[in-house]
Amino acid sequence: MAIIREMFKKNKKRYMTVPSEAAKDVPEGLMTKCPECKSIVLTKDLMKCDKVCPDCGHHYKMTAYERVDCLFDEDTFIPMDEGMKTVNPLGFPSYEEKVNADAEKTGLNEAVLTGIGEIDGQRIAVAIMDSHFRMGSMGSVVGEKITRAIEKATEEGVPFIIFTASGGARMQEGVLSLMQMAKTSVALSRHADRGLLFISVMTHPTTGGVSASFASVGDINLAEPKALIGFAGRRVIEQTVREKLPEDFQTAEFLMEHGQLDAVVHRSEMKKTLSTLIRFHTKEAR
C-alpha cells in the first residue's frame, strides 16, 4: 500500500496542470459555459444566437434591452416613463441603496422596460421585465409602468405584449406591491373591453404574484422552453400536498401539456410568431 500511495503522489504531481501565461491572458467573459450541457461557446457567438445555447438549446436570461434588439424593427422602439423610480414608500432599510446598485448595473430605473414599437411594421405597446433588476420583482413603480403601457395600447387601439420574468411581489413594498396585481388586471380588462389583443410571453422565471395576475390572463399565453412558471415553490407545494411532484413540474412544457399555455416558442421563432398572431388579430387583417 505504501508503494501505491507513493506512485499516486508522483502521478498526481505529474498530471497537475498549471495555467499557462496565455490562458491567464484570456479576457473575462470571452467564453460562456452552458449550465445545461456544460459546453463552452464564444460569448459573441452566443449573442448571435439570441443567447440560446447552440448545442442544447438552453435559453439564457435576457436583459430588457437585449429583448428589444431581437424583437423590434430597427429604430422603432420608443421607451416610456424611463424616469419613474421607487422612493422607498415603507422606509425599508437599505432598499434605496440596493435599487440604485441595480440601476447602475442594468441601465434601468426599475425592473421593467415599457414602450411603443413595431414588429414587422405592426405597431404595439410592450412591457419587458428584467430579472437582473431586483430579480424582476414587482413593486409599485413596476405596476404603474405596466399599467401605463396597457393604457397607452388601449388609447392607441394597438395590441399589448408583455414579457414576464419575475420572482414575484417585492417584499420591501409590502401591500403596495400586492396592489399592483389588481391595478394591472383592471387595465387589462379595459383593454379587452375595447376588443384589443393582449399576448403574455412567460420567460424564466415567472413566479409569485406576477404569475398569479397579468402573466396568466393573456388572450394568448406563450412561454420560452423550460421556463419556470408557477406561484409557490416546489418545496412549499410538496410539503402542503404531501406528495412528490413530477420532475418537470412548473416548467413551460408541463403547463403546455396541462392546457395552461397556448404554445412554447423557441426564441429564434418568437418575433415571427408574434408578428403572425398580431396580423391575425388586427382589424386590418379581418
TrEMBL record:
InterPro entries: AcCoA_carboxyl_beta (IPR034733), Acetyl_CoA_COase_Trfase_b_su (IPR000438), ClpP/crotonase-like_dom_sf (IPR029045), COA_CT_N (IPR011762). Keywords: ATP-binding, Cytoplasm, Fatty acid biosynthesis, Fatty acid metabolism, Ligase, Lipid biosynthesis, Lipid metabolism, Metal-binding, Nucleotide-binding, Transferase, Zinc, Zinc-finger. Residues 30-286 form the CoA carboxyltransferase N-terminal domain. Its main location: cytoplasm. Its cofactor is Zn(2+). Pathway: Lipid metabolism; malonyl-CoA biosynthesis; malonyl-CoA from acetyl-CoA: step 1/1. It catalyses: N(6)-carboxybiotinyl-L-lysyl-[protein] + acetyl-CoA = N(6)-biotinyl-L-lysyl-[protein] + malonyl-CoA. The keyword Ribosomal protein does not apply. NCBIfam families: accD (TIGR00515). Acetyl-CoA carboxylase is a heterohexamer composed of biotin carboxyl carrier protein (AccB), biotin carboxylase (AccC) and two subunits each of ACCase subunit alpha (AccA) and ACCase subunit beta (AccD). Belongs to the AccD/PCCB family. This is Acetyl-coenzyme A carboxylase carboxyl transferase subunit beta.
